[in-house]
Amino acid sequence: MSTFKKSLLSLLAVVMFTMFVIQPDAASAATKISSASAIISKGKEYIGIRYVYGGSTPKGFDCSGFTSYTFKQQDIPLPRTAAEQYKKGIAVEKNDLRPGDLVFFKTTNKPISHVGIYIGGNKFIHSAGKGVAITDINDPYYWKSRYVGARRIIQPLSARLLA
């Protein structure tokens, strides 16, 4: 067999591998992208639901109960507490936030005591004193100074391919 034919067969093998191995990831990425918007949409359905300490259902949510419940609706399990959720996913810089990222705050003497879901435009949805609401992450009177960090639970295709 000539060198040209061997090279062509090798190239064909790479193309076939890409079609069968990477292509399902692309479909999965589309699902994950739609999951972020679905999570945000589902979260918005609960605007106005009252805050209940320890609450994790639409009868009443605390912050981490809201995030874990909302992600679970898209078959993405999260631990129950904000501190445990902070250990999941990958760290994200504030200037690189994407809709669906979890954002974390220090509102008590604990290092991580509050969590919400970033929805874009410097806004996040969360459950706090007034119940489920959308708030500006850079609110100078409260949230801006209490911001701790963010975690990406729904990873884009490029991150999964590099892993």
TrEMBL record:
Keywords: Hydrolase, Protease, Signal, Thiol protease. The keyword Cell membrane does not apply. It holds the Pfam family NLPC_P60. Residues 33-154 form the NlpC/P60 domain. The keyword Hydrolase applies. Residues 1-26 form the signal peptide. PROSITE patterns: NLPC_P60. InterPro entries: NLP_P60_dom, Papain-like_cys_pep_sf, Peptidase_C40. One of its GO terms (biological process) is proteolysis. One of its GO terms (molecular function) is cysteine-type peptidase activity. Belongs to the peptidase C40 family. PANTHER family: MUREIN DD-ENDOPEPTIDASE MEPH-RELATED. This is C40 family peptidase.
